[in-house]
Specification:
Elements: H1 3-6, E1 9-14, H2 22-35, E2 40-45, H3 47-50, H4 57-73, E3 82-85, H5 91-100, H6 105-109, H7 112-120, H8 127-141, E4 147-149, H9 155-172, E5 180-182, H10 217-225, H11 242-255, H12 259-265, H13 271-297, H14 300-329
Parallel strand pairs: 1-2, 2-3, 4-5
Helix pairs in contact: 4-13, 5-8, 5-14, 8-9, 10-13, 11-13
The chain binds tryptophan.
Residues 11-13, 15, 46, 49, 136, 139-140, 148, 150, 154, 157 line the site of tryptophan.
Length: 334
């Protein structure tokens, strides 16, 4: 076994259901960049998950390509990592069906994201929305994934994937690797600029709550200037100062400064100066990403070569797992 084969396998994905926020970048993509040198990583654009809520087809197509471009623009290397579009590797759907038969109705009924989303999309509580976590389990288990970088909101889904893997292994003998969550310590949670008690979510209806990776600099500045803080006028990281804590976290990530350094820098100055500084630091952090994404979207042929080649690499690995699984469940060999 060479070194490469012994590296742990990492799988993660983002839905192309809207634009990517600063929260996604800090909580997910930025950490993925660090992981690409240590692990064998698969980074997927999960378009099949996205259609569990109604999408405009034209927009979905654009957002899928834009997200792939963004992965590359953030510094993910499409040669080192396998970066592809979920629907291009049909084994995801195939395994998902099989795993459905090893997942209990009651388990899926307890998923808090399903409860939230079915309340939010009450007119479209489709079976796919209910089944979402099984497709996610299939994504992960197809590749013998060891580690899954996810946010807190996906912990319950990962736990389900582990249970399904163990159940299948219990019935058929060791087949799937049981994955571990990988939740980054720093900057795991970026909060809404409008309501800092809430996570920054790309589905927030208030555009001032979210900074999008492809926002124009003037819009980013506007959003930071309007960010909700408190009435103390002290830049200090402590309990009860959710708005300031969030801005300090963002500023610290964008500049590399510690919380103490930030507190000193703004001692005796008002929040106005601080918000401008945070806004400018984010504009500078995101500028190269936005420019690179725009450039990549102008080369659809290049993007196509990336997603085609990588889907092929992914399907070779996926097929290895599927051959085993089909045999274990008793399907006749094709
Ligand atoms: N459900 C994840 C989210 O919304 C996206 C996702 C789909 C995912 N499949 C995955 C994340 C597999 C990690 C691993 O954030």
């Amino acid at each position: 076994m060479d070194n490469n084969e012994r590296k742990k396998i990492v799988f993660s994905g983002v839905q192309p259901s809207g634009s990517i926020s600063l929260g996604n970048y800090i909580g997910a993509l930025r950490n993925w960049v660090d992981m690409q040198d240590i692990y064998n990583c698969l980074y997927c654009v999960v378009d099949m998950h996205a259609i569990t809520v109604r999408q405009d087809p034209k927009k979905l197509r654009e957002q899928t390509l834009s997200l792939l471009a963004l992965y590359i623009a953030c510094g993910l290397d499409p040669v080192k990592n396998i970066m592809y579009i979920q629907s291009h590797v049909p084994q995801h759907a195939e395994l998902s069906w099989i795993l459905n038969c090893y997942t209990m109705f009651g388990e899926l009924s307890r998923m808090t994201q399903f409860k939230d989303k079915s309340a939010k999309h009450a007119d479209n509580v489709n079976a796919g929305l209910f089944d979402y976590p099984v497709l996610m389990a299939a994504d992960i288990l197809l590749y013998k994934t060891d580690l899954v970088p996810i946010g807190h909101d996906q912990k319950q889904h990962l736990e389900l994937a582990r249970n399904v893997a163990e159940r299948f292994n219990g019935v058929h003998g060791n087949t799937f690797t049981v994955p571990e969550p990988f939740i980054p310590k720093v900057g795991g949670r970026i909060m809404s600029l409008a309501d800092p008690e809430k996570k920054m979510s790309k589905s927030d209806e208030n555009p001032n709550a979210i900074v999008l990776l492809l926002d124009k600099p003037e819009d980013i500045m506007k959003k930071f200037k309007r960010a909700v803080t408190d009435s103390e006028a002290v830049v200090e990281y402590r309990e009860g100062k959710a708005g300031i804590n969030n801005l300090m976290t963002i500023y610290s990530i964008a500049t590399g400064k510690t919380m103490d350094e930030i507190a000193n820098e703004f001692a005796g100055r008002g929040y106005g100066d601080f918000k401008v500084a945070v806004g400018e630091s984010v504009v500078e952090m995101l500028r190269p990403i936005r420019e690179k994404t725009e450039e990549l979207l102008k080369s659809p042929d290049y993007l196509e070569s990336i997603y085609k080649e990588n889907a092929l690499r992914a399907s070779v690995l996926a097929e290895r797992t599927m051959e085993k699984v089909r045999k274990k469940v008793g399907f006749v060999k094709k």
